[in-house]
Amino acid sequence: MKRPSIGVRLTLWYLAIFAVAQVAFGAGMWFLLRHHLYDLADDNLEGQIEDLRNFMEAQKKNASIAKLQEEVAEAYLLEHSGDYLELYAENGALLYRAAFLQDHPVSLVAPDQFRKPVFRSLWIGGRPFRFTVRRFAANGHVYTATTGIPMDDEVETLGLFRTYLLMFAPLLFLVAAGGGYWLSRRALSPVDELVRTARDINGVNLNSRLPKLTSGDELQRLSDTLNEMLDRIETAFLRVTQFTADASHELRTPVSLIRTEAELALRRSRTDAEYKEALRNILLEAERTTGLVQQLLSLARADSGRETLHMQSTNLAEIMHAVEESWRQVAQIRNLHFSATIAEESFIVGDSTALRRLADLLLDNAFKYTPSPGTVSLKLERKTDSVMMTVQDSGIGIAEEELPRIFDRFYRVDKARSREQGGAGLGLAIAKWIVTQHRGSISVESHPSQGSLFRVELPLSVAPAPKPVLA
Ligand code: ADP
Predict the structure, then answer these.
(1) Predicted TM-score of the model (pTM)
(2) Which ligand 1 atom sits closest to the C-alpha of 407?
(3) In the chain, what are the domains?
């Protein structure tokens, strides 16, 4: 079953609490009024008894029962306060009984039980009454009096009060329901607005943002947080789109070169040597394309977090010796002077394949951008808590304004020249990623026509315990 909206739920809760409060308040007020009215009636009854006591006090001390009967009848027969009076003398002799009580005898409690004054509400002949019975002393005698008053007005007042309560309560309830719903809708209307806008945001209009709220409350925090999240998603999305566009562009060039080469070769019949030359060119382009695809794959995997490095204690010096070995030959072919100074035993926590690749990428650039005659040097130094790898060349250098961008993907200072050398502007981006993964830093110093110096600083790890020597 679909859950009702927050607005409806809030209203229902509000109404439930309101209804309980309303019932409690109504009932409370009704009981309070009742208590007050009965209190007044009881005061009235007490007053009547007090008057009676004074009257009895005024009688002769040794007056006979008959005399007393006569006196009381004379005083109370026409008095309102005698309408519901019953008076007994000490010995149980009846001194007075109102006509009403003769028709409707009232027995509140057994005569021997009323030590304290007793008050009772009774319905007699369909009318409400309040009666009291009490024993009082006057003139040295003890009398027992029962007296009452009709409570029609009080009961009517209470009835009216209850009717008004029952009449207005539903009305108040309806007004509260409407008000509650309106309030909750008003408070939550920004949420609907957020939902509507959020629903419309897709890959094409990812630059749209949720409405900026200024309410300073939770909803503003929610919309601000969602907008910040959209900023991050948009940046990531643009990066991916840009990467795809750049990658496609980079791949188009070698593919069209291969195609042109093949088309040209096939246009007319050629000599064996010409076919071989064409195939060699095609092979060269295919090799470059494979390299490019590999670089693209590395970056894509790095972006998606799937390029996992196997970090373990690695002797960087060993890796550098292997790197030096492989580049020595290249230096000879390119007629460049290549020197390497490698510190002994430099253990870091790292991925040996990635670290080798890092050195290869930097040396590849150094050799690519250094015309003969020139020098390229590789250095590995140990510092207090890091190792410093430096690749320096005496090549073409990089202009100062280009330096901040050379680590960007697909960025090349001289596109044509770089492509000629087989570069797609991804090498340094990959190098930077490897360095970051090793919690290191990479920097460059370069001057046009003077050469470049790339520095990589990697945190040093404690050397592993030496392996036990077998006897
Ligand atoms: P590429 O594959 O094109 O060499 P990189 O990301 O490795 O791409 O380098 C980016 C750009 O930085 C290169 O195109 C080149 O212009 C410049 N660059 C990198 N290393 C050097 C260097 N040692 N000397 C001169 N320029 C360099």
Answers:
(1) 0.62
(2) 6
(3) 6-159 (3.30.450), 218-304 (1.10.287.130), 312-459 (3.30.565.10)
